[in-house]
């Protein structure tokens, strides 16, 4: 039995022993370590918290991103995402996330210069890139090449040195679009395009992606701005799966390239950064508006998920999805409307009126419309999670920097509830009691 004490503590009574404990509460949380004193006997290990997927466990204190999932609020360093998407550039937002404040003109100019002057990669990266199969998924290439950057910059190991950290941050934000574009051009068999520092951050990325024989590539300004806003919307999202991966791997003291490679790996999965790709595949599979009701029925029957819907934190419309939906219409003005947009709109309309989705508070998330925009801009589906990774880089780096400097942090090492066999003696193969195995174990052993 637990009662909340207004003085900032919990009084916890262990009904197994009748003993009572005072557990301090700070910032709306208690430390699960304070529960370790609750024991049945002296040799009892003590009470553990059990929370698969961290549904109700804060792994850190953070001052970077605030989300109120029930009210659909997202802020970076206190600034509402809507205002940043309307007024800021991605590089300015990256500065905000990493340094904590919006830059003045001079600081922004220096910051932009520094990022742009780290866009080139070592020539050996080209050889490394060429080692991948012609049809390698660009996100797999990103996981490998971002990790490989650590071998080019051994100085990055000095993670407690502030100057070194700042340098690696600039290098990573500068080089990620170059690696991303190279991964695409490798898969297409196109020659790589060198960075053009006269262009904006998204403009340079579009140039490295799509420049062919023209002397001067000039990006379409509507698409350039749309991409910049998409990067802003993806720049951070507090303790999501990939950020947790960056922090957990970074907690071992490894360099930021390796920690960020772990973030890329986490982002590759269809439940996370792969969702926008999965949305397009789902829309193509549905094929036409008249098939939408049938598809919704199959989702409700459990045959799959409505990709781009639902979120661990948002139990309301994802504020990023609202902004992206607006951008989608602006982009389609330039590129022509995709029939997939109409299927998406119909899916959204039906799902938002359907009891199944209402009861579970499932709303469109950031990925529901982003894939449609990327596709209209000419990005192949395989590149979608890579685009997400470019946007998320400043978030990962600001979270990693915060983690490294946080004296509360230790190497990430969760506990487990061991529910396996008690100790037993090894026996020779001929005397192992196969006939005593239950069906389930026999099944596993068949593998
Ligand atoms: N379609 C249909 N049903 C869903 C969906 C969905 N997209 N998402 C959740 N549900 C249902 C579940 O089946 C479950 O139903 P039940 O209670 O009857 O079993 C209930 O809603 C809760 O689902 P959980 O999986 O427990 O929710 P969780 O918070 O763990 O998962 C997640 C969140 C992974 C995002 C989930 O909603 C999902 O798989 N969505 C589709 C993939 C997607 O769009 N991912 C992108 C997320 S945003 C991002 O990473 C940038």
Strand order of the largest sheet: 1-2-3
Strand-pairing-aware structural class: mainly alpha
Low-confidence segments:
1-5
CATH architecture of the largest domain: Orthogonal Bundle
Query: How many strands, which pairing sense, and closed or not: the largest β-sheet?
Result: 3 strands, antiparallel
Give the number of helices: 18
Bound molecules: acetyl coenzyme *A
State the helical fraction.
Answer: 40-55%
Return the string of H and E elements: EEEEEEHHHHHHHHHHHHHHHHHH
Family: Belongs to the citrate synthase family.
Protein name: Citrate synthase
Pathway: Carbohydrate metabolism; tricarboxylic acid cycle; isocitrate from oxaloacetate: step 1/2
Active site: 311, 367
């Amino acid at each position: 039995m637990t009662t909340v004490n207004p003085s900032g503590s919990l009084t916890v009574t262990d009904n197994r022993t009748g003993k009572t404990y005072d557990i301090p509460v700070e910032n709306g949380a208690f430390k699960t370590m304070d529960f370790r004193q609750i024991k049945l006997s002296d040799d009892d290990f003590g009470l553990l918290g059990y929370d698969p997927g961290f549904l109700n466990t804060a792994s850190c204190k953070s001052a970077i991103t605030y989300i109120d999932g029930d009210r659909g609020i997202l802020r970076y360093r206190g600034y509402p995402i809507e205002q940043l998407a309307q007024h800021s550039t991605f590089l300015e937002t990256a500065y905000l996330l990493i340094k904590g404040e919006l830059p003045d003109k001079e600081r922004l100019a220096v910051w932009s210069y520094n990022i742009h002057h780290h866009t080139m990669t070592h020539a050996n990266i080209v050889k490394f890139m060429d080692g991948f199969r012609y049809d390698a998924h660009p996100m797999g290439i990103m996981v490998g090449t971002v990790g490989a950057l650590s071998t080019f910059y051994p100085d990055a190991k000095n993670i407690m040195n502030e100057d070194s950290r700042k340098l690696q941050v600039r290098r990573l934000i500068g080089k990620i679009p170059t690696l991303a574009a190279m991964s695409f051009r490798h898969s297409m068999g196109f020659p790589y395009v060198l960075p053009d520092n006269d262009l904006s951050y998204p403009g340079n990325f579009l140039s490295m992606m799509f420049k062919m024989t023209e002397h001067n590539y000039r990006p379409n300004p509507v698409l350039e701005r749309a991409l910049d806003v998409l990067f802003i919307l993806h720049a951070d999202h507090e303790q999501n799966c990939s950020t947790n991966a960056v922090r957990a791997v970074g907690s071992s003291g490894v360099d930021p390239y390796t920690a960020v490679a772990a973030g890329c790996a986490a982002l590759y999965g269809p439940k996370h950064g792969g969702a926008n790709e999965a949305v397009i595949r789902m829309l193509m599979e549905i094929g036409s508006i008249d098939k939408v009701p049938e598809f919704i029925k199959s989702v409700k029957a459990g045959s799959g998920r409505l990709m781009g819907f639902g979120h661990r934190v948002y139990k309301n419309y994802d504020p990023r999805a609202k902004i992206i939906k607006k951008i989608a219409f602006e982009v389609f003005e330039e590129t022509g409307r995709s029939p997939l947009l109409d299927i998406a709109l119909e899916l959204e309309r039906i799902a938002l009126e359907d009891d199944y989705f209402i009861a579970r508070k499932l709303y469109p998330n950031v990925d529901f419309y982003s894939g449609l925009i990327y596709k209209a801009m000419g990005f192949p589906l395989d590149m979608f999670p890579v685009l997400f990774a470019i946007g998320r880089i400043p978030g990962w780096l600001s979270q990693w920097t915060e983690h490294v400097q946080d004296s509360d942090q230790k190497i990430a090492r969760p506990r487990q509830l061991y529910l396996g066999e008690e100790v037993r003696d090894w026996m020779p193969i001929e005397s192992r009691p196969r006939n005593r195995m239950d069906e389930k174990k026999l099944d596993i052993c068949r593998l």
